[in-house]
Amino acid sequence: MVWRPKSLTKKAQVSHEEKEKVMACAVAKYQAELAKLSLEKKQGLHKVCMDVQKAYLKEMGQLISLNHNTLANLTKGGVQLSELNSSMKSWLTPTETDKVLEYIVKMARCGFLLSHKCLKEHVDEIC
Asked: Which domain of life does the UniProt lineage start with (predicted)?
């Protein structure tokens, strides 16, 4: 709603999503540094983190701190914890979620009321 303050959990979620976006930019920049020829001077992890932090501060006016070890792990093919949690701890796969959402929209268009029990039965059929 408009003019309603965000809850602390929502603020934390938004800031974490922003930090993930900034970290993705840092990973892309560091991979570009690694792709440079050996004759060119390459920036290290710390320098890339600091440059991305300064660019974000200048652009958005917020300070976000990036850990160089996290940058190293993500560059080597690691996964963000949020991505891991969404894939491992989710009850439904993304395709099953899409099927359930299609069913909900279909029922809404037909004008049928959808109770929790009815929705659970449909989800159990899919799984």
From this structure: Eukaryota
pTM above 0.90, yes or no: no
What are the tens digits of pLDDT across the range 68-95?
Answer: 999 999 999 888 888 888 778 888 888 8
Q: What span, in angstroms and rounded, lies between the C-alpha atoms of 100 and 105?
A: 9
Q: Give the dihedral of Cα atoms 74, 78, 81, 84; nearest 10 deg.
A: 140
The confidence band for 65, taking pLDDT boundaries of 50, 70 and 90, is: very high
> Phi and psi (nearest 5°) for 43?
-85, 150
Tell me which amino acid residue 105 is. Answer: V
